[in-house]
Amino acid sequence: MPNKTIYVSDDDLPLYKRAQELAGNLSSAISLALRKYVEMEEGRLEGYDEITVRVGRGAGRKQRFSGVLLAEGGRSSKSGYEAFKVYRSRTGKFVLHADRRNQITQGASDEEYLTGWRAWVGNWSTDQSWSMAQGEATLHVVDTVEELRELIPEDLYQLVEEAADQPAVEDLDI
Description:
elongated, five-stranded antiparallel barrel, alpha+beta, single chain
């Protein structure tokens, strides 16, 4: 097995010692770090970003992947809203991040809004309050654009369908 010498500055020595403690073998720790670095840099050069999203209920947990945002949108109702972001991963899969939140509205009744726009603006600005409850965020990974059709609103699906075959970065010779 070939030997390679790595020179470590005195300032970085504690970092290398800690890596060896955690990995048990400094060589494997360095190889793992270099593998991750090369993977992320190659992705960045291809136009992909490191994406970190929250999933689960409440504060949830975070998940990270390499991808490019294709489209985003949402829909709302009296009970809350859903926000969607669709990415293409570096491996060519489609990733849907859906964030659902519940909204509780209190204040003016619907009848008060029927007296014209001036009354609506006045009532909305003075009598209505609302609160937002932390909802649930999910991450779905699918192989094809068609698999997204049932998961997102139709107008967003059309945007994703249009963007799906576009390159992450287009190099122009200008």
